[in-house]
Design a protein that fits this description.
single chain, 129 residues, mainly alpha, 55% helix
Amino acid sequence: MALKRLEHRQLKAIELLAQPNRGSNNPKQARSMKHVAEIVGVTRKTIYEWLKDDLFQRELKREMCRLVGNDILDVIKSMVKQGKKEAKHAELLLKTYGDMLTDDVRIDATVNSAKTIDFDEIKSEGRFV
C-alpha cells in the first residue's frame, strides 16, 4: 500500500538514513539498519518495507540532496583542480543529487491559432511534399 503521508517515525528514519554512515558518530562504521530501526522504534523489516514506498523514497532522496546539495559544486571544482575533467563524473553527481541534470528533453512549442495555413499554396510552391 502506497503511503500518502509520512508519520513521525518515518521522518526520523529518513533523517538517519540520509546522513553519512546513517548518522553514526563513528566515521569508519555505518549504523546497521537494525540500529536505525531500534532508534526509530520499529523493526528492521519495517524500515525495508518503507524503503519500497515511492513517497518514502522521494523524501529520502530529497533529504539526501538537501544534506549534500551545497557541497556538489565544491566536489566538481575539486575534480577540475585535480585534473579529473571527465564530464561523466560531474554528470553522475548532478543527476544523482538534486535532479540538477536529467536526460529529459522538453520542447515547448506554441502555435499561433490566429494564423491560417493554406496547404494548397504550400503544395503549389513546392514546400510540401
